[in-house]
Design goal:
There is one protein chain. It is built from no helices and eleven strands. By secondary structure, it is mainly β. The mean pLDDT is about 95.
Length: about 110
């Protein structure tokens, strides 16, 4: 059974950066596809980025060039480096294990001056 725990959220000014982390348990993490989603108030949860076990990466158009997804298989972690943050990036960010559909508990990101 996979368990996911996100961390790294917080309050940041527009133009700032944050690095989110997702710590995973489970013996098959290195071959698992992982993704980041976000859920803003009044909106549906949306896909942000994914990284396959083989390293194939996809991004939502509006974050490509600003956000970078990466993984450390030895530490069973996935990261989301977020730069040039904008107020519209404010949301709860979730890590997802694709194959099982398991979600983490989320971490709040607030971009505000």
């Amino acid at each position: 059974q996979v368990q996911l725990v996100e961390s790294g959220g917080g309050l940041v000014q527009p133009g700032g950066s944050l690095r989110l982390s997702c710590a995973a348990s489970g013996s098959i993490f290195s071959i698992s596809d992982m993704a980041w989603y976000r859920h803003a108030p009044g909106k549906q949860r949306e896909f942000i980025a994914s990284i396959s076990g083989g390293g194939t990466i996809r991004y939502k158009d509006s974050v490509e060039g600003r956000f970078t997804i990466s993984r450390d298989n030895a530490k069973k972690m996935v990261f989301l480096q977020m730069n040039s943050l904008m107020p519209e990036d404010t949301a709860v960010y979730y890590c997802k294990h694709i194959e099982s559909g398991i979600w983490g508990q989320g971490t709040q990101v607030t971009v505000s001056s």
